[in-house]
Write a structure and sequence with these properties.
Length: 240
């Protein structure tokens, strides 16, 4: 890819044309790369990233070891837990989606330094990626950790976890594939539980909320919340 192609690939984050109106679950912040960040992107994009392409791809074919099942992480933030999980739970490949540019570049830098071959990054709206690039019955699991709670009632429609989105996730899962959600916003936890319970393609592996997965590290963000007495709630549902 040329320099211009790479830069335009990371500058476009959503599909706007056509009738596809997707959930606007994010607000874009600082969208400018400094010289050092630009170099990280140009040096590593082709090896570790994927540009949005309107057409279905085989998720496993994106990775060096095509035999590993593919997990998709949505909204990895700075990617702190992403890279720890990819190292510790290396029997999976991870397709990691985030629109926040500073976080995207941070994880790209870390992944290239650590030479992790089981992570691919995309800077694009996850709703578009799932709907337009990921075939049904192809994904082993979804990780969505601390999605923005959009606490004000008038913003609830911006929450990522909505019935249509959960249905979309469910159709992408292989049989036995999982959806793993974590939030420290109590009311959003119950909102998620109600929506996931209503989706006929998946069922709760536990009675109510799930115990924390041993391989999910605590993030700084989570620690700050715990210090303020916020409790994390975890949900683990599987495709029947
Ligand atoms: C509150 S942060 C949590 C980040 C991280 N998972 C953590 O635990 O620290 C939620 C992230 O989800 C991202 N996000 C929200 N909607 C998204 C979407 N539709 N596609 C991709 N990323 C999204 C936001 O940009 C934001 O960085």
């Amino acid at each position: 890819m040329t320099e211009n192609e790479i830069i335009s690939a990371i500058n476009r984050v959503e599909v706007r044309e056509g009738i596809h109106r997707t959930i606007k679950s994010y607000a874009l912040r600082n969208n400018v790369l400094d010289d050092e960040q630009k170099k990280i992107v140009l040096d590593n994009f082709e090896k570790y990233c994927l540009a949005f392409n309107d057409g279905f791809v085989s998720p496993s074919s994106l990775f060096q070891d095509e035999k590993k099942p593919v997990v998709i992480e949505i909204g990895f933030g700075m990617g702190t837990s992403t890279q720890i999980i990819a190292k510790e739970r290396s029997e999976y490949n991870y397709l990691c989606l985030e629109v926040y540019l500073q976080g995207f570049v941070k994880l790209l830098r870390d992944v290239s330094r650590l030479e992790l071959d089981n992570i691919k990054l995309m800077r694009f709206n996850a709703v578009d990626v799932l709907a337009r690039m990921i075939p049904d019955n192809s994904i082993a699991g979804f990780h969505i950790f601390f999605p923005d709670p959009w606490p004000k009632k008038r913003h609830h429609k911006r929450r990522l976890i909505q019935p249509d989105f959960v249905h979309l996730l469910s159709t992408k899962l292989v049989k036995g594939g999982y959806i793993y959600l974590v939030t420290d916003w109590e009311e959003y936890a119950q909102w998620m539980m109600d929506i996931l319970n209503e989706e006929p393609m998946i069922r709760n592996r536990y009675e109510g909320f799930a115990p924390p997965a041993v391989w999910r590290p605590e993030t700084k963000f989570e620690r700050k919340g715990l210090d303020k007495d916020y409790r994390s709630s975890e949900l683990w549902f599987e495709r029947a």
